[in-house]
Amino acid sequence: MRPSHLAPILLTIAACSAPAGAPPGGTGAQMGASSASSRAVVLRAEAPRLAADVAWLADDARYGRRAGTPGEDAARDFLVARFLALGLEPAGEQGYLQAFEVPLPAVDGGASRLEWSTHAEGVDDPQLGRAKQATDLVPLFCSGGGEAVGELVWVGFGIVDEELGRDDFADLDVTGRIVMIARGLPPFPEAAPVEEQPAAGGYSHGPRTSWGTAGSIFTKVMNAKHRGAAGVVLAQDPGRAGEALLRFDAGQEARAGIPAVMAGLELAEGLLDGEYASYVERLRAGDLRVGAHERNVFVRLSADVQRGMGSAENVLARLEGADSSRVVVIGAHYDHLGLGGTGSLSSSSIGEVHNGADDNASGTAAVLELARLFAAEAALGKPPACDLYFALWSGEELGLLGSKHWVANPTASGVTVNLNMDMVGRERSNGLQVMGAGTSDAFVDWLPEAASRAELDPIVTLSGHGIGGSDHQSFLEVGTPALHLFTGVHGDYHRPSDDFEGFESEGARRVTEYARYLTKRASAATELAFIEPELGEQDDRAQKDRSWSAWFGSIPDYAGGGGGLLLSGVQEDSPAARAGLLRGDVLVEVGGVAIDTIHDFVYTLQRHKPGDVVLVRYERRGSVEEVRLTLGTRAIE
């Protein structure tokens, strides 16, 4: 969204805004004052106000509002100013704010380097003048930050494939050394004829035709790491001499935990005395042990990769009601994906602004409009029946971090209901879906009247799960009834094309009115019993967007007997592969759900939609590791 697109929207909002000097979205109280507090004032959600807020939040100047970045900080300050102008009380821990930690995007610091010498002391003390230096290298996507020093060991292609009987590390001790690996693959061995047919009822994948993940860069690096290597140098394939080195890809979630860089051909030749290209050629011709593996070359490798933590803030405001012992939380997340990478469904668009107009500037704008309307009613002498908390969460795109933090560290007590507005900007195109109707008996009676008042015909799902691992789930997990309003996934979802031009303001207005009625009913309800949602409960109409099922990309071992889900492999170029999961890993937790069997795994995938970021814990070689994984889909092209 370019700034020039704002002009017509701002002109429109000016024509129907509060008195001069008030910010866009001024209170209904101000509007009422201009008519001498007449009881004839009719308050309604206004499409131009919603459009103006979405336009501001989804502008390129916000750089995609990634949690913990300056772009999101600007959005945070905008939201604080809006709540302040509406006269709402601060409800955070520092005024309107509640801070928490988020992982920051990985960054190539640009200072990676490699020094080498044929004398160990030359590396230990470069001032001796014997060390050669090189900057013709970039850190690999999976690299850890830091430095490693050791003797160079050449291992060819670095492939280990037990099924095919190949181990390029055989008889080599790489402990504490720097491993040099060639990018690319040797010819795949000819498949042996299949002599036996699968048993009746069995299934055969047929003969293998590729190295699969055994030939992936990450697997090669991990082969070295788990044999004790201190660092890895991946050398450019001589057959790709004209290509640029792989750029550092922050969209890959895989982490090797050791320094790992990609080196250009000139550096590779220098490390192997001018023999690198010829070694690779002979390897591809079938000579598996070409070249002296231990080179008598000593290397200091420094990978300038920065993977840090930063601060993000929930923005929280309170409107006092007649009964302050009860609280209704109306929430939406205001963060998005920044410049792509983690969470993006467009792997080729790293560096492009992901504006997130629908996801979730639309829900944020709806919450602001609800805050304006309820504040205006209170100023006219009609406060809500209980306290209303307007919560704009950060960190949702990184795994519901903000709402989870608030639920664990609440700034209010007596929460009875959560109403979640996540992606409400495509109602005209997709209709409205309401999830969580079965989490309290009262909801089922409210929804038809709300739909009639807002002129909507939503699809109602009893379960609070289904499409969308969104912030309402943080409340369901602690036994608070919750409703999630959602106008569907679309082809712009989690891509740079989710921009203001696709926002449907009139539909968002109707959804806001729908939410307004539900909020009034929720605030008046003195008792709301929680019902544990059961996955798969829904009405008798076909659930929309089933083609958008989340894709993990693992190949489970279905014969496993519990205690975690053993992976017999991962699909190439899948979310699991990008996250660095490997054959032999055992999944023990995905998206907050403990994994005992395949059924637990299917259950947690059904709770999520493509683009959700889930924390995956897994066992590998006796230790438990974790990684954030972006769920994908094969339906979005």
What can be said about this structure in brief?
This protein has 637 residues and is of the alpha+beta class.
- State the helix count: 16
User: Would you identify the CATH architecture of the largest domain?
Assistant: 3-Layer(aba) Sandwich
Helix/sheet category: alpha+beta
Q: Estimate the helix proportion, in percent.
A: 25-40%
CATH superfamily (homologous) name of the largest domain: Zn peptidases
Total tally of structural domains: 3
Mean pLDDT: 84
Alpha-carbon Rg, integer: 28 Å
Beginning-to-end CA distance, first to last residue: 22 Å
As residue ranges, the low-confidence spans are 1-38, 126-130, 192-205, 536-547
CATH class term of the largest domain: Alpha Beta
Strand segment tally:
27
As a percent range, the share of strand residues is 15-25%
CATH fold-level label of the largest domain:
Aminopeptidase
- Shape, per Cα inertia axes: elongated
The largest pleated sheet is described as:
9 strands, mixed
Structural descriptors:
disordered N terminus, nine-stranded mixed sheet, 3 domains, eight-stranded mixed sheet, Aminopeptidase, single chain, Glucose Oxidase, domain 1, Pdz3 Domain, 637 residues, elongated, alpha+beta
